[in-house]
Amino acid sequence: MSNSEVKQSVDVAIIGGGTAGLAAYRAAKEHTDSVLMIEAGPYGTTCARVGCMPSKLLIAAAENAHQYEKSAQFGVNLGKPQIDGHAVMQRVKSERDRFVGFVLESVEGIDAQHKLDGYAEFVTENQLSVKHSDGSSTQVEAKRIVIASGSRPAFPAPWAELGDRLLVNDDIFEWDTLPESIAVFGPGVIGLELGQALRRLGVKVLMFGVGGAVGPLTDPTLTDYANTTYAEEFYLDSDAKVELIERSENGVKLRYIDKQGATVETEVDYLVAATGRRPNTDKLGLDKLDIQLDERGVPVADHYTLQTSISHIFIAGDASNQIPLLHEAADQGKIAGDNAGRCKEVRAGLRRTPIAAVFSDPQIAMVGESYRDIEKRLGSCGCFEVGEVSFENQGRSRVMLVNKGIAHLYGEQGTGRFLGAEIIGPNAEHLAHLLAWAHQAKMTVSQMLDMPFYHPVIEEGVRTALRDLNAKLHLGPEMIDACMECGVGS
């Protein structure tokens, strides 16, 4: 140990002070007061600073502008909205800072002796070297360790040559105003939400992907529908052939083959890389440990205990390479922290039904098992069925002029068990919650149909899909006329 290195011993060390790290800290503290949370960057969580909250602020502004434009279809002529980019971004940043402030207040309430600023790296299975910004370091000896180091945006290395014309979603929320044009690479959750929102706020948007995927959808029918629907609003090629990306004097020059086969050259102000996130585990010194890693170099952990192949090391949140969502990070952090605090009495924690939402328009939602996972597990034996509803003629959806989308619900032959759903459509975020509760309760499709449905509501579309699914599972009558079965416009 060098002269500038301090030594500290604790029961539990937590690497990371984001959503998972904070949850782990609170859970570990229930069992021991000897807990240390190590954080290298600013506190405030990915969600509050650069993720779910600022993106929803931008989307809220975009939805307001879109409703203004759409009003003429109701016979209410308001004309074209005037977008004040400065005002839009001022509100986004102001409210973002407010949300971050709430997190910081919580962190400030943690005893200073339980926090350590710096970059942690494993020396041995029980030792961490924490390097501080002033060049000094602290050696931390911990009986149990929770890795909750989060993730960061990832993009192809050559794009770094674009300099300040290359943006990740973090950068967008520092804008003072809106640009004239952007190219978004990656029509996943982040790219789709931000790209559509910026388009509705007057920014020219080009969106490119690889492999044809849109959002988290895995069902081919819904993926095709999503590709067609979003492309009506902005240029979207989810399986693009881009031949050139290079820095120009005033932005980024692109050359690509469009969907008609023609070569197009254009220039945009910025390239937005929405090509995924990478777990922050590559600089933790894991190579010094005899720990089982997956193909991305992330420690493999038990789904229910978050325990890695080294019994006293746990991993949680975005760093775990499981489901990079705030509610999942909080759940994982709680489980990992609780088990780290318990010492040797490791317990299985509650893992809830998977649920995810994309706040695009129409929205996308995923519940339970995805189509891809069900097809892989049950497809060879034909042991599952798909119930469908289209929202295009669904009564309440048409009334509100949000009648775009399809929902697919999946059920198991024999048991009648509801397996999961993929949705693109109106109010998908709310429909997903109803379905997630049913899935977690292990309900059958017939039991779900026994639940009450009001009229006229968008939720009636779920009943239509359930009736269709129940018939295909040979557990109920075939639907002959939806209006006779469920009521007008259901």
UniProtKB/TrEMBL annotation:
SUPFAM superfamilies: FAD/NAD(P)-binding domain (SSF51905), FAD/NAD-linked reductases, dimerisation (C-terminal) domain (SSF55424). Transmembrane segments: none annotated. Binds 1 FAD per subunit. Its cofactor is FAD. Keywords: FAD, Flavoprotein, NAD, Nucleotide-binding, Oxidoreductase. The active site is at H455 (proton acceptor). InterPro entries: FAD/NAD-bd_sf, FAD/NAD-binding_dom, FAD/NAD-linked_Rdtase_dimer_sf, Pyr_nuc-diS_OxRdtase, Pyr_nucl-diS_OxRdtase_dimer. It comes from the Bacteria. NAD(+) binds at G186, P187, G188, V189, I190, G191, L192, E193, G276. Residues 357-465 form the Pyridine nucleotide-disulphide oxidoreductase dimerisation domain. Residues 11-333 form the FAD/NAD(P)-binding domain. FAD binds at K56, D318. Disulfide bonds join C47-C52. One of its GO terms (molecular function) is flavin adenine dinucleotide binding. Its EC number is 1.8.1.4. Belongs to the class-I pyridine nucleotide-disulfide oxidoreductase family. This is Dihydrolipoamide dehydrogenase. It comes from Agarivorans albus MKT 106. The lineage of its organism: Bacteria, Pseudomonadati, Pseudomonadota, Gammaproteobacteria, Alteromonadales.
